[in-house]
TrEMBL record:
Subcellular location: Cell membrane; Membrane
Pfam families to which the protein is assigned, alphabetical: 7tm_4 (PF13853)
Any one GO cellular component localisation term in the record: plasma membrane
Topology term for the membrane: Multi-pass membrane protein
Alphabetically ordered keywords of this record: Cell membrane, G-protein coupled receptor, Membrane, Olfaction, Receptor, Sensory transduction, Transducer, Transmembrane, Transmembrane helix
Biological role: Odorant receptor.
Protein name according to UniProt: Olfactory receptor
Naturally occurring in which organism (per UniProt): Ursus maritimus (Polar bear)
């Protein structure tokens, strides 16, 4: 087919080929074992966490409601990507339609931005709990908590919807190989024969302006928390206050560090970082944090530990 005819390729008629992890095709079967195990653990762990928070009235507090939102987002994040990834590794099911690819791209970015907003809400929760403990119940009511969760979802939808229009406006010229295990914005845009400067600028804007601002506000919250904590005269009280933030800080680091590494490596570090390393980290990112988050909160949060032990004791008694 002559190159000129490629310019008339309709996006709706496009079919893409996801090749998994370039350079590691022979290891796909072996890599699928830990990825599948982590995916199953992530789904089971987060669904159990959600079930426990929903069914235990004592956990119907802002901190745990935000945690259930985070767990829901983790389930959606891993489920959006891992099944197709495993289908590629196990059955060589590499073909995906343009519509399905764009849908996966949208939900991937939408969930990421939503999780970022939830982490900011959780940082605000810790700020109010430690810096203004006497006003905690009046500031963070259940109504306010629900509105914050709804605002996170609406904001993410508004931010990520333009990604769909940005890839649909491009003209495609027959290239359909995506060297990845799932579809994301720049992976699709790079296959177009148009100028993708707008896609690059908007992607950077979302990463730096919206998600970057979330990080700035999280840092500000924890700076004020630390100032308050170190004014507490008792070392035991200081450690207790810091311990309530430890699990959240671990989750924040797990969420943002690999995400921004993957984002900037994809745009600026392709020559410095082997492509298979970048794709492997991107694959692990969608299953490792969702798997570890319930474990971290289960280990570091005594209320969740107590409720989990009580629940398992009830189950064992019934059996």
């Amino acid at each position: 087919m002559p190159p000129s005819s490629y310019n008339h390729t309709s996006p709706q008629a496009m079919w893409y080929v996801l090749i998994g992890i370039p350079g590691l095709e022979d290891s796909h079967t072996w890599l699928s074992i830990p990825i599948c195990s982590m995916y199953v653990s992530a789904v089971v762990g987060n669904v159990f966490l959600i079930f426990m928070i929903v069914t235990e009235r004592s956990l119907h507090e802002p901190m745990y409601i935000f945690l259930s939102m985070l767990a829901s987002a983790d389930v959606l994040l891993s489920t959006t990507t891992a099944p197709k990834m495993l289908a590629i590794f196990w059955f060589q099911s590499m073909v995906i339609s343009f519509g399905c690819c764009v849908s996966q791209m949208f939900f991937l970015h939408f969930i990421f931005v939503t999780e970022s907003a939830i982490l900011l809400a959780m940082a605000f929760d810790r700020y109010v709990a430690i810096c203004h403990p006497l006003r905690y119940t009046t500031i963070l009511t259940l109504s306010v908590t629900r509105k914050m969760g709804l605002a996170a979802v609406v904001r993410s939808f508004i931010i990520c919807l333009p990604f769909v229009f940005l890839v649909y406006r491009l003209r495609y010229c027959g290239r359909n190989i995506i060297p990845h295990s799932y579809c994301e914005h720049m992976g699709i845009a790079r296959l177009a024969c148009d100028n993708i400067r707008g896609n690059i600028v908007y992607g950077l804007t979302v990463a730096l302006l919206y998600t970057g601002l979330d990080i700035v506000f999280i840092i500000m919250s924890y700076s004020m928390i630390l100032c308050t904590v170190f004014r507490i005269p008792s070392w035991a009280a200081r450690l207790k206050a810091l311990n309530t933030c430890a699990s959240h800080i671990c989750v924040i680091l797990m969420f943002y560090a690999p995400a921004f590494f993957s984002f900037f490596a994809h745009r600026f570090g392709e020559k410095a970082i082997p492509h298979h390393v970048h794709i492997l980290i991107a694959n692990l990112y969608v299953v490792v944090p969702p798997m570890l988050n319930p474990i971290i909160y289960g280990v570091k949060t005594k209320q969740i530990q107590d409720r989990a032990i009580l629940l398992f004791s009830r189950i064992s008694t019934c059996c």
